[in-house]
Every structure is written in C-alpha cells, then in structure tokens.
Write a structure and sequence with these properties.
111 residues, 4 helices, 74% helix
C-alpha cells in the first residue's frame, strides 16, 4: 500500500469514527459508518487499519445487540441501566479507536 493509499485509508477510518460519534445526535450515522466499513473493507485488507475496521464493525453490532436488549428490558426497569452502559461502552470504543488511529497503531494483534 502506497503512502497516498494509506493516508486515504486513514481518512476513511477517521470518518467512520466521526460518524459513530455523531450517532449520539443522529442515529442514522451509525448505520452509515457500518456501510462505509463494509464498502471499504477490501481497501485496508492485510494492513494495520483492518484491525480498526473490525473494531468499528464490532462496536456497531454489539451496540445494536445490547441496545435491543436494553429496550426489551425497559419494562422491568433494568433496561435503563443497560442503555446507559451501552452508551458509555460505545464512547469508550470510539475514543480508544480514535486515539490508536492518531498514533498509527492497530487496535489489537491480528490473529
């Protein structure tokens, strides 16, 4: 991957983190971030950025899963705590990913 391609991929990865963060104001941006991840996945294959894409995709799917569970359990009262936890966890994932991206580090060692 050339330097120009790497910089372009970093910009796309950064955009996805921004879209994920914007989802706290407009939820549809979380879906847009997922679409960008899947469309650009091949561009970052076998690079350190692929770990960020995997991190971002997992953030979406686990947040969706736990948000759904939180809404289902709202009637029991525990759902509020689950939804707050999902919000905090999502902020953590976005911040941790953003900081690693700024340092040009992968999210974790690829298997």
């Amino acid at each position: 991957m050339s330097d120009d391609q790497t910089e372009s991929a970093i910009k796309v990865t950064r955009l996805v983190y921004v879209l994920q963060a914007a989802s706290f104001l407009l939820a549809i941006t979380f879906i847009a971030a997922l679409i960008v991840n899947y469309l650009k996945k091949d561009d970052v294959a076998e690079t350190w950025l692929s770990s960020h894409f995997r991190w971002q995709v997992r953030t979406f799917w686990f947040a969706l899963l736990w948000t759904g569970f939180g809404f289902i359990t709202l009637i029991m009262g525990v759902g509020y705590f689950i939804l707050i936890g999902v919000g905090i966890w999502t902020i953590y994932r976005i911040a941790k990913g953003w900081l690693a991206l700024q340092d040009h580090k992968p999210m974790y060692l690829e298997e």
